Amino acid sequence: MFQARPRHLLLRMSLAALCCVSCTHVFAHELVLHRSSPDSAEAMEVSSVGDGVVEDLPLQGGGFQRVMYSAARRETKGIIVMFPGGTGEIDIEKSGHVKNAKNFVVRSDDLWRDRGYGIVLVDALDHQSMRGQRSSAAYAEVTKKIIEFAYRQANVPVWVLGTSQGSIAAMNAASHAGRTQLAGLILTESVSILGGSHETVFDAHPDDVRVPSLVVANEDDRCKVAPPSMAQSIAQSIRRAPTTVMTVSGGEQRTQDDCGSLTPHGYYGIEEKVVNGIVDWMQKTQNRP
Questions:
Q1: How confident is the model at residue 127 (pLDDT cuts 50, 70, 90)?
Q2: Higher pLDDT residue, 28 or 54?
Q3: pLDDT at 239 > cutoff 80
């Protein structure tokens, strides 16, 4: 992944031996989106100019888990660990530049930070596709290290949020976190129908989630593996925690791929509406007696 081993086997071997040494890069970070033609692979870029941290959480086999923290722009209410969809490869550079910035969790960076939430972006492990790996017990161990990293940034509540394929990772993180380790779980346009990655949110042990959870579904999402009609089923699978379903609608279709980032599936054009709804739920959950 000297008999050549499959990449996925190497990935699992590396995941199983995550250690706690880390390499940290401090950078200046400010989200700046540059748009060209909508279908371009480099339609958006992120430039850096404010405070932030890039950290590599190394794996014993030589790989690493790269994460990037961007601080809130006002008094910090909490930190959200963001798991992107697709292959998970957003390509965070040591400078804080994000090459693949089209994903919802990257595009919405400013919106969360303006509302008082620090953001931890999670890249793919060692630049390898995360498809088929996110629901594994080995990756659950990696998510624990990521959550520990989040808590080192500020003494505030921590949520995990996943979008599309990334919801599998967020569900796995929440299902393996202790009851007091997370403030909540947020699942957006979650993969619930088996497709090319051969895993869904239902494989990530929803029955073990013990924290307040939110399932967000866009009525106009046409991605075949993440139909909005499955939102209630996802919520019902989280049987041991209070769970809310939030329905939104709208979004622009700028690519032919219905599961792409620049579509209703990726909340393209309705980012602020979605973020406001999620933040409202987070604040109500925090204030719950």
A1: confident
A2: 54
A3: yes
Residues 6+ apart with CB under 8 A from 276: none
To the nearest 10 degrees (0 to 180), the angle between helices 137-153 and 166-176 is: 80
pTM of the model: 0.83
pLDDT 10s digits, 65-96: 999 999 999 999 999 999 999 999 999 999 99
Domains in the chain, CATH or no CATH each: 7-286 (3.40.50.1820)
Could you tell me how far CA 43 lies from the centroid of its own chain?
20
